[in-house]
From TrEMBL:
It comes from the Bacteria. This is diguanylate cyclase. It catalyses: 2 GTP = 3',3'-c-di-GMP + 2 diphosphate. SMART domains: GGDEF (SM00267). Keywords: Membrane, Transmembrane, Transmembrane helix.
Length: 369
């Protein structure tokens, strides 16, 4: 089932689409004027034709300016619904002004200009399909300007012929466009719901992947992540002969913490230990929970004395300050540095044996295997 969508978002998208398409279409308007000028060139007095062209040019520039301003400010529907209303009204007035300025005694010219007005209404209809009130404004302004103009011509009787026909045409166009507009809005709604669902799914997937790779108690990478990181380190070491070191860390006498202070304190100590160790590592190193109170650290690009120094630093960081109120604890560390031919099992076994030797030797120490 699609995610619920906010109607305001749908309106905002529709509004932005409407403004963008409107701007593009306005740029082609001069082609329409050129057609009108060509038709009227010899039949209409030059001053009337130039007057109409001057009017549409001014109206056109204002429309372009308004739309550029609206787009510049981010097409916010709440702020720009009214200024945008001015655009179709201006357009309607400019085209409707063909009546008073250009229509007159020549019946063929009148019919041609009437056809052009129908064309203008038809071309503009899809632009406003998602904001039909704008289209009603355009049609209303066009029709009223034309009517006022025609009534003032020497032959107002023509108005009785032209205006009802045009009104019927505009009404039919508006009716059908309204239906299409509702379907387009539904499409936008579905598209938005789809996008939201996709985002939710990818977020859920990312959260699941994170969960699957993370130890729930300490937030450290878990055994699965360690296996992956170790495989990558081994591949890098094989390819570039770049050694790295694996440390096996095991808290000393941790069972006693659980037994004397309870499991909750034991858990808190494990978390504090994880933070303490992580705080000592470079971003390129990795500390993972291997299981229980055992942890593994991968020291990338580190071997020999440097690895022993790093392990000592970790051991001291744990031993030097309690890991919780009154919980002084130490850690035993086994070191295994990669040698050619080592695989994950061999490396882990060597580090484990070294850590076991550290336990045997009295704990709270570092031993290299
Ligand atoms: N609170 C808590 N305890 C855990 C968790 N995982 C393992 N343990 C405990 O860790 C303890 C490990 O005990 P042992 O294996 O005997 O080791 P130890 O007491 O640390 O002794 P040495 O390793 O020999 O120094 C057990 O009591 C486990 O129950 C955990 O997630 N939370």
């Amino acid at each position: 089932m699609p995610a619920p969508t906010d109607d305001a978002d749908v309106q905002r998208i529709a509004f932005a689409q409407c403004v963008a398409v409107q701007q593009r279409t306005l740029l082609t308007a001069p082609l329409g004027w050129a057609l009108v000028a060509w038709l009227c060139w010899s039949a209409v007095p030059r001053d009337r034709l130039l007057g109409w062209l001057a009017l549409v040019l001014c109206g056109w520039l204002v429309c372009l300016l308004l739309i550029a301003l609206i787009r510049h400010q981010g097409a916010d529907i709440a702020r720009h619904a009214r200024p945008l209303l001015a655009v179709p009204v201006l357009e309607g007035v400019c085209w409707g002004a063909m009546g008073p300025c250009l229509m007159g005694g020549d019946a063929i010219l009148n019919v041609s200009l009437g056809a052009i007005l129908c064309g203008v209404a038809a071309i503009n209809a899809p632009l406003y399909v998602v904001r039909m009130q704008l289209y009603f404004c355009l049609c209303g302004a066009l029709w009223l300007t034309l009517l006022t103009g025609l009534l003032r011509t020497p032959a107002p009787a023509q108005a009785h012929l032209v205006m009802p026909g045009l009104a019927l045409f505009l009404a039919l166009l508006s009716f059908y466009m309204h239906g299409i507009g509702q379907r387009v809005m539904e499409g936008i709604r579905l598209q938005l719901a789809n996008t939201r669902l996709t985002v939710q799914l990818s977020e859920a997937l990312a959260a699941m992947e994170h969960q699957a790779a993370t130890d729930a108690l300490t937030g450290l990478p878990n055994r699965r992540s360690l296996d992956r990181a170790l495989a990558a380190q081994l591949a890098l070491a094989e390819r570039e002969h770049r050694p790295f070191t694996l440390l096996m860390l095991d808290l000393d006498h941790f069972k006693a913490v659980n037994d004397t202070r309870g499991h909750a304190v034991g858990d808190a100590v494990l978390k504090a230990f994880a933070q303490r160790v992580q705080g000592q590592l470079r971003p390129s190193d990795l500390c993972a929970r291997y299981g229980g109170e055992e942890f593994v650290v991968l020291l990338s690009g580190t071997a020999g004395l440097l690895a022993i120094d790093a392990a000592e630093r970790l051991r001291r960081a744990v031993a030097d300050a309690p890991l919780g109120p009154g919980v002084a604890i130490t850690v035993s560390v086994g070191i295994a540095t990669w040698q050619a031919g080592d695989d994950a099992t061999a490396l882990l076994a060597r580090a484990d044996a070294a850590m076991y030797a550290a336990k045997q030797a009295g704990r709270n120490r570092v031993i290299a295997g």
